[in-house]
UniProtKB/TrEMBL annotation:
Gene3D superfamilies: Electron Transport, Fmn-binding Protein, Chain A (2.30.110.10). SUPFAM superfamilies: FMN-binding split barrel (SSF50475). GO terms for molecular function: coenzyme F420 binding; oxidoreductase activity, acting on the CH-CH group of donors. Keywords: Oxidoreductase. Pfam families: PNPOx_N. One of its GO terms (cellular component) is cytosol. This is Unannotated protein.
Length: 153
């Protein structure tokens, strides 16, 4: 596990990425209530396009909060969402992905978390497919694009 921050300048946009997020089994995803109170949730995460992504229920509070305020932080954590020693909270903005991207995120999550995915998620996928005609029905995905370097939380 790496605790080192890596910055890459691409077309004048400074992207801050950490190796510990790439390797993390869980991240603490922190979104904010209307009154500014932070809410931390441990989620599985995969590198995705120009950020990091995870799946969630489309009716989750995470979705509702980021639709009102897309500002978030993410940090490598344990299964309970407690930050890992030496990890850094990084500011970013979150967005809800379209259905085609949801399918790609689900496949990336399935590939990274093979056994755990089979044990915890696959049954509900099969149930959703049977009820709704699609294994992706009832699933949303959130992508976090990291803020430029120097805007860590």
């Amino acid at each position: 596990m790496h605790d080192q921050k890596i910055s890459v300048d691409i077309d004048g946009i400074l992207l801050a990425m950490t190796a510990d997020l790439d390797d993390a089994r869980y991240i603490a995803f922190v979104s904010f209530r209307k009154d500014g109170t932070p809410v931390s949730t441990a989620v599985w995460v995969v590198p995705f396009e120009d950020g990091y992504a995870f799946t969630t229920d489309p009716d989750s509070w995470k979705i509702k909060r980021i639709l009102k305020n897309p500002a978030v932080t993410i940090q490598a954590s344990n299964v309970r969402g407690r930050p890992k020693r030496g990890s850094v909270a990084i500011a970013g903005h979150a967005e809800v992905l379209d259905p085609a991207a949801v399918a790609r995120v689900r496949e990336a999550v399935r590939a990274k978390y093979r056994i755990m995915y089979r044990l915890l998620i696959e049954r509900s996928d099969k149930k959703a497919a049977k009820q709704h005609g699609s294994a992706t029905a009832g699933t949303a995905a959130i992508k976090v694009v990291l803020a430029p370097s120097g805007q860590s939380a």
